[in-house]
């Protein structure tokens, strides 16, 4: 089951990925006392990456992915309108590992379908 799915905006692709606010509760325990945490993430090819999940120091605490996220965007050549699926994948070496999939909508003989985006 997906932790969250999101259709990417231009800001998500060009700067940082804004994570749905409802997901903050999941990261809150890991971010307590700081405003950033590294998350281990595996893509559909099994490549392990680290995304930095940060929140603002004051005010509204909406989480975003910063470091590591843009590298993933460049590698997959993602664009606004593409979708990501992010979900917990289990534990590895004592830490939670997340799985990320990138999808793009394509038209095949009329209907539009979501297909996986492979590395460019």
Automatic annotation (TrEMBL):
Record-annotated TF-B3 domain positions: 4-106
GO molecular function, one term: DNA binding
Membrane-spanning segments: none
Cellular component terms per the entry's GO annotation: nucleus
SUPFAM superfamilies according to UniProt: DNA-binding pseudobarrel domain
Domain of life per record: Eukaryota
This protein's UniProt keywords: DNA-binding, Nucleus, Transcription, Transcription regulation
InterPro entries in the cross-refs: B3_DNA-bd, DNA-bd_pseudobarrel_sf, LEC2-like
Location within or outside the cell: Nucleus
Protein name: TF-B3 domain-containing protein
């Amino acid at each position: 089951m997906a932790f969250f799915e999101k259709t990417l905006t231009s800001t998500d692709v060009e700067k940082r990925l804004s994570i749905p606010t409802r997901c903050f509760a999941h990261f809150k325990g890991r971010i307590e006392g700081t405003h950033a945490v590294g998350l281990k993430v595996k893509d559909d090819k099994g490549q392990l990456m680290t995304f930095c999940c940060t929140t603002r120091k004051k005010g509204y605490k909406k989480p975003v992915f910063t470091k590591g996220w843009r590298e993933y965007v460049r590698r997959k050549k993602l664009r606004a309108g593409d979708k990501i699926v992010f979900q917990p994948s289990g534990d590895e070496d004592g830490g939670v590992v997340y799985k990320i999939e990138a999808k793009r909508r394509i038209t095949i003989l009329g209907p539009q379908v979501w297909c996986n985006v492979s590395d460019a």
